[in-house]
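During the second year of the project, the team shifted from modelling isolated chains to modelling whole assemblies. The rationale, set out in the original proposal, was that interfaces cannot be judged from single-chain predictions alone. As a representative example for this report, we include one of the complexes processed in the last quarter. Its constituent sequences, exactly as entered into the pipeline, are reproduced here:
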Amino acid sequence: MKLMNDRTLLIIFAAFVLAAPLIFAPTGAAYPDLLQRFAIYGIFAIGFNILFGLTGYLSFGHAAFLGVGSYASVWMFKLLTMNIIPALILAVVMAGLFSLIIGYVSLRRSGIYFSILTLAFAQMSYNLAYSVLTPLTNGETGLQLRLDDPRYLDGASVEGTLPSTNLFGLEMKEVFWNPNILGYDLQFNYGYYVCAVLLIASFYIAMRIFRSPFGLMLRAVKTNQNRLRYTGINTRPYTLTAFVISGMFAGLAGGLLATMDPLAGAERMQWTVGGEVVLMVVLGGMGTLIGPILGAVFIKYFENIFSKINEGVLHSWFAIMPEWLDNTLVAIVSPFVGKGWHLTLGALFMIVVIFLPGGLVDGAKRIGGWITGANRRKAKAEAE
Amino acid sequence: MSKLIMNRRGLLKSGAAVGAGVALPTIFTASSAAAYTNEPTGGAVTLGFNVPQTGPYADEGADELRAYMLAVKHLNGEGDGGMMNTFSSKALQGNGILGKKVEYVTGDTQTKSDAARASAQSMIQKDGAVMITGGSSSGVAIAVQGLCQEAGIIFMAGLTHSNDTTGKDKKANGFRHFFNGYMSGAALAPVLADMYGTDRAAYHLTADYTWGWTQQESIQAATEAKGWSTVANVLTPLTATDFSSYVAPVLNSGADVLVLNHYGGNMVNSLTSAVQFGLRDKMVNGKNFEIVVPLYSRLMARGAGENVKGIFGSTNWHWSLQDEGSKAFVKSFGEEYGFPPSQAAHTTYCQTLLYADACERAGTFNPCGVGEALEGFDFDGLGNGPTHYRAEDHQCFKDVLVVRGKENPTSEFDLLEVVQVTPRAQVEYAVDHPMFAGGALGACNPGS
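Output from the structure prediction step:
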């Protein structure tokens, strides 16, 4: 019965993800780059949730694995081939190795000390990428593809143009279907569907981990690690495995970022990125399956759509109103959009944390309960 | 417990999925085959203004945005026309570009390559921008330039002073009006040699990224050619705010000049720190200790206050210039916003006009056509005297201003005085100059 439900959930989730270019059209977010970001940061948040949601270990260092994944991918594009498969594999492997080392050291402590250790490692990686390892990372400018890169496995490209990242010839940036549905100009793009398939796969893996005995053990770590130790269980291998798995998810996300847009910059490793994924998970609902993805979509939507609303756009919204009202409304609203998007996001985050401690999923649950409860009462009234 | 979650979620999701399923088979039209990315088809053309609105360069970004909005006004025939009246090319009519009304979208780069590229991508994919311009950091400019090259969009660089933007990272779809580190060195070194002598020992503090490195390299080469020696070059993190530990060792190093390859908030802090240490009152090697800031801006000078008095640097443009173009620009910017424009505002305004003019002359928005119109273009009347857009690396060549912090400023805007207008010939260099070598423009990319 339970498996059935999981399967239904997965199918519905897959359908939702695959139809995203259509579903997001009315929100203005249905362009390939943002949809890709939704999916990629969804993967990042899913992985982070395996560590944070299940074991309760709060890591601020996952940005480092995201960055490692990106650098690994771009180097694969530079040296081997523009096919994305080797790039993604190396991204996951490198991030896995890094997380093994960092996790091995950091997991000797728990709680706040663990968080600080991971933060320190992330900051260290950032500084390494930013200046010390400049030959490898190209410092602040970021690692980019160049015309004279060797790309040993690829044939010669067209003179003077950079080849695109591709999956056996399907170019990631290509829009393969560009229909006009219900007045919306939709863009179905190969890159997004690569991300989408990987997101669904990640979701499936996360679901299996949540339901497995291993997942149960991780929850036990969160609930009471001391009691586990007293019963003679060594928790370290479990937490380390969770750490490495979430690191590999982050590496995959980083690799995908570089795959969709072949550039790796040091700021991808900055602690703010590591903090952002914490926000995504908490906002969406930590420890739930779907929550982190919702959180990722929410934050990326704000970052990319709200920050674009300038006064001109506001004036066009309120154009039907009399001019004095138009100007007043614009004056009231404009501090909260455009460059003020951080402000709105912060306020919303506070509201969510105060009133919906379980995140957006908690909110959906409450609304759902309210609807079903209301329905039940209605049915009862009709029966009488 | 978990069963309940599934059901509710299922309900929400299946609702959405059903909606999607119903909408899917409805009418759809085949996409028209466009000749190039975001070919404008309606009565309007969209430009993308991608500037830092938050972060360390937010001041510059805000001023750039003001200039962009002013340029759009002038292109659409509103306002007094500004530098369109003094521009040597008369292709612009004040009726938009190629008869299409100019509209714009704005974005926040956050002074981060990633955010800048995401913002530019959304302008290209969502808003249909046919040209992207902006950037107040060389790292960001280079990253966005790379993106525009791949997407088939013209990139008109804003405030970016690194040699790499039109050097090893140059791109066929990218164009820069602003000057660069090499030009600063070439303009500044002779003035410094005149003022401070030819036997100076310089100590460099350098922002640790592409702009800092290339500017430091340029200044070192130019000053050493005049007989100076370089004692040390210390790299400082861009995020540093306290420079006292970097300034303290300078006095005992034997150097008698401190060169601050810093910009924005970095420069304000490091200069303040150096002045507080009393460096400028010291005598070293029998000479008065001096400080030099190779890249100056009025916004920075205002931040550093009293400390900039008498300090030399170079700048792309200054509002006190008395040519017709500058006067027209300062007048219309001042009437619009109530204060004079910065060099960042000037270069972005020029870039917008130059792009629009190139479209008019090419008769198309196609990046390849526009690129051809810009390459090798000679123009005048935009505040820098006769200017040349070099075809080989898409760098503008024009006079460079050497400025000095004013001893007796008459207003809060009157902080710099122009010491010398260095003629263009003195700051020109060969395309294959070692500081710019290693990159290739590649072919212009019109996209799909």
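The radius of gyration of chain A is 23 Å. Chain A touches chain B through 69 residues (CB under 8 Å).
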